[in-house]
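Hi, here's the filled form for the chain we discussed.

Project: internal
Contact: R.S.
Residues: 110
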Amino acid sequence: QVQFVESGGGLVQPGGSLRLSCAASGSIYTIAYMGWYRQAPGKQRELVAGITSEGRTTYADSVKGRFTISRDNAKNSLDLQMNSLKPEDTAVYYCYGGNWGQGTQVTVSL
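And the returned structure, exactly as it came back:
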């Protein structure tokens, strides 16, 4: 089973940018769907963005126009470019591709 490790989280000011990366332990070529999810304190885990093996994408309304998901099958990686970050984007972000990564913390604050 492919394992995932996220990186790229951190502390950023409102309006700033971060790029999250998810490295897979094996090939992601046959994984039909991959996504980024997030979970804020006291809230349920929610979809941020998803991408199919054909490259079709879906985004939560709250991040449309600010976040971009991409996958590189050759590098076995899934990325999330996050721009114009807001305090409400603060959460632990998880990579999903059939199972979950351990998560990476994103904090948006002055």
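Let me know if anything looks off before we file it.
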